[in-house]
Amino acid sequence: MYGGYLVIETNSAHPELVRIIETASVPHPPLPGHGKGPRMRYATRFDDLSAGHMHAHTALRHSLLNVDEGLYRSDPITAVAAVEAIELTHRRIYLDPVLAKDPTLAAAIASMHGKHRLSDLVWNAVGVIAALFLLIKLLLGF
């Protein structure tokens, strides 16, 4: 387990793609007016970087294009919401001001949190049912 930063980048040459990368060093926010090439849109620090990256990948796995490059066919709002909703300890370092002003970001994060709660509820119910089944089996001697 090691800490580090998870960064979401976009590139003006490929507006429909996002790139998620890990870095050990503190990412620096882009300079104003920086329009060409890769542009950092979001950065967060995880105490367990590999677990954070795995959760981000799981949330965006259906839009994966290239695992080696960390490329996903996603809009920045969806990618940021996926990372922001991860239920691990993390601290936001940077959020692009354009994304911060977008009212759909908060709704997307809330939606992701809701999906996580529903998944937790379902798997907890499966666990309780399995434990009850085993208890009944033990008591009845099957």
Tell me what the structure shows.
With 142 residues, the chain is of the alpha+beta class. It has a six-stranded antiparallel beta sheet. It is elongated and about 70 Å long. The chain is 45% helix and 27% strand.
Number of helix segments? 4
Shape: elongated
List low-pLDDT spans: none
Oligomerization status of the protein chains: single chain
**Spatial sequence of strands, sheet with the most strands:** 4-5-2-1-3-6
How many beta strands in the DSSP annotation?
6
Strand-residue proportion: 25-35%
Summary tags:
45% helix, six-stranded antiparallel beta sheet, 27% strand, single chain, 142 residues
Q: How do you describe this structure in short?
A:
This protein is of the alpha+beta class and 142 residues long. It is built from four helices and six strands, in the order E-E-E-H-E-E-H-E-H-H.
Question: In terms of topology, how is this protein built?
Answer:
Layout (H helix, E strand, L loop, with lengths): L3 E8 L2 E10 L14 E9 L2 H12 L3 E3 L4 E3 L2 H9 L5 E6 L1 H5 L1 H38 L2
Antiparallel strand pairs: 1-2, 1-3, 2-5, 3-6, 4-5
Helix pairs in contact: 2-4
